[in-house]
RNA sequence: GGGGCGGUAGUUCAGCUGGUCAGAACGCUGGCCUGUCACGUCAGAGGUCGCGGGUUCGAGCCCCGUCCGCCCCGCCA
C-alpha cells in the first residue's frame, strides 16, 4: 500500500501519528518559508505543510531542504505521496469550511509520482467551463469534487435500490444487448451482423420483452439496472444511451407494483437525502391531469390550475373564442399570479411563446380595480367575475386564455403555467410524487393515420375493457379511443421518472389488441412472435415498471443536466469528445459486414 | 428537419455605429514573502478573433455558406 488513509479521513484522533497520504495537488500556497498544499483525493482535502527547517522529530536537514524546493515547484494536479505527522493546527488557523480543517500534516518526505502539465482548464473553481472541453478532458472534469459527489450519489443510490429489491425477492437477471429491433417506440440503434449478411441486431430500447419472457419462465420477480438505447434527438434530460431500473413481477396487479415502487423511492430518498417522504403517493387520472395541468406529468408543487371556460363564454361576442369552439376546440385559462403589472411588451413576449407552441394567440385580462383588456368589452361583467373565480385570480393578477383545439390549448397553457410559476417563485420546496393512472390504451396518430399504443402494445386494458375487447369482433375509432389501460407513470416535481403497466398475459387478448392498433398478425409474428408463442404456454399475470435512473439521480443531486450524473455522456449530436466516437472505420471492417457506404453530399 | 443563443489568449469573458480594438481577470513562467486556505506581491510570456468566401480603402464587428456546442420544437416514454 502506498498510503495509510484517504486525504479526508484524517482527523483530530490522528494527531501525533505518522501517516502516509497520496493524492493530487489541488492548491499550492507558497509563502516563501512555509508552504501549504491542499492534497485531494476522492475522499476530500487535507492540508499538508512544508516547513523550511527540519522538524525536531526527524533527521536529515539536507533531504528536508530538497523536499521544500520540490514542494515549491509542484504543479497543480501533480500526483504525490507524502509521509509526515498529523498535527493539530495552531490556534486560530483552523479551517471550518473543510472536514479536516482542525488538523494538518507536517511533511517529512515527499515523492512526486507524476508531475502534471499545465491544465487545459482550472478544476478548482466553480466557474463555468465549456462543456465540450469538460467532456474532452473528462478525467480532469471528474476530479472536481461536485462531479465525484454526483457519481458517489449515483453509486449509493444503486446500492440502496439493489438492497431493497433483493429484500423484496427480486433477482437480477442480465438480458442481451445485441437483440432484435423493438416494435413501436423509438428509432433503434443497429449493429450489422458479420456472419449473417444483411441482417442486423438492434440495441435494446428497454428489456421489455425479455422481462416478460422471464416472468413466463417463472422467475417471479426480476430487476436489472440496465443500459438502454434510443436513436432519437437529444435534450438536456435525454441521452442516446441511458440507464433504467427495470423491474417486473408475477401475480400482481397495479397496486402491488405501485406499492413496491413507493417503498423503493421512500427508502431511496431517506437513505440518500435523509428525506422523509410520505406514502402512499397521490394518484391522478390521466384525464384529470390533462384537464387541470394540461399534460400527463403534472407539477403539483403549486396551484395555477387550468380551467375550461368554454361553457362560461358561450354568450360572449368575442369572435376568436366563438370560432375556436365552433370548430370543435375549447377555451382554457390560467391565472398569471401577480402579472397585472406586465407591460404590453412583456405580454407580447408571452404571446410569442405560446405562438411558438402552436397557438394562434394569447388572450389576456388584467384584474385590477376593474378588468383591463382590449377584449373586456366582449364579456358581461358577471362573466368576467366568474372567470376570475374559476381561475382564482385576485386583483393584481392577469388571466390568460388560449382558444384552439384541446391538444394545442393544453400544450400552451401547461408550459405557460410552469413559466409563470418559475418566474414568480411560486414553486414549493416540498418534493411532490404523484402517480398518473388510467391512461388511454391507444391514441390516434394523424401522421401515421392509425392508432398506436400510448405505452406499448403489451399493456393490459382495464378488466372491463378486456371483456369488451374479447366480446367484439372489431371496434370503431371512438370505442378504441375510449379504452383505458393499466399503465401508470410516476412523476416527481413535474418530471416523469418512470412508468410501467400490467401486461397482457393471454395470447388471444394480445392478438386482439395488436389488431386494434393495426399490427397485422404476420408482422407481429415476424417481429415478436417469440412473445406471442410464449403467451400460449402458461404465462402468469405480470406487470412492472422502469425508472429512469439518470433523470432520478439528476433530480436528487440537483444537477442541471443529465451529463453531470453520467461519467461519460454524449453531446447533443451523440458524440463523445473524449474518444471521438462515433468515427469512421477501416474499409476492411465494412467489407466484412457487407456494408457499402452511400453518403450524400 | 426547424427555431434561438454562442464560438476572441490555456480558461472565463469584454470588445460601442466598420477606422489605437488585440483587451481584462484567472491561469502559466520567473522573482519576493514563515500561517495561508480562491494567500499576497512584483515582473514577463501568451492571439489563424471556429473555418471558407464576399462587401469595403479598411472586417473580431456587416453579408453568404459551413462546422462545432448548448437550449427548445418536431421526434422520443
Q: What percentage of residues falls in helices of 4 or more residues?
A: 25-40%
Q: What is the radius of gyration?
A: 31 Å
CATH homologous superfamily (4th level) name of one domain = GAD-like domain
Name the beta content range: 15-25%
Oligomeric state, counting identical vs distinct chains: single chain
Strand order of the largest sheet: 6-9-10-22-21-20-17-11
* CATH T-level fold name of one domain: Gyrase A, domain 2
Largest sheet: 8 strands, mixed
Query: Number of helical runs?
Result: 17
Assign the structural class, choosing from mainly alpha, mainly beta, alpha/beta, alpha+beta, or little secondary structure. Answer: alpha+beta
The total count of strands amounts to 22
CATH class term of one domain: Alpha Beta
Low-pLDDT residue intervals, each spanning 5 or more residues: 55-62
What does this structure look like?
By secondary structure, this protein is an alpha+beta fold. Among the domains are: 7-114, Nucleic acid-binding proteins (OB fold (Dihydrolipoamide Acetyltransferase, E2P), Beta Barrel), CATH 2.40.50; 302-423, Gyrase A, domain 2 (2-Layer Sandwich); 440-484 and 506-537, no CATH class. Helix content is 31%, strand content 23%. The chain has helices at residues 61-72, 131-136, 138-141, 145-167, 208-216, 254-273, 286-293, 319-326, 344-356, 381-391, 406-423, 463-471, 477-482, 507-516, 521-534, 549-557, 587-592; strands at 18-30, 35-41, 44-50, 79-88, 103-114, 171-172, 190-192, 200-202, 221-229, 241-250, 282-285, 307-308, 330-336, 363-367, 371-372, 398-404, 433-437, 442-445, 450-453, 487-492, 495-502, 542-548. It has an eight-stranded mixed β-sheet, with helices on both faces. It has a five-stranded mixed β-barrel with strand order 1-2-3-5-4. Strands 12-13-16-14-15 form a five-stranded antiparallel β-sheet. Strand 1 and strand 2 form a beta hairpin. Helix 4 (145-167) crosses helix 6 (254-273). The relative contact order is 0.10. Residues 55-62 have low confidence and may be disordered. The structure holds one RNA strand of 77 nucleotides.
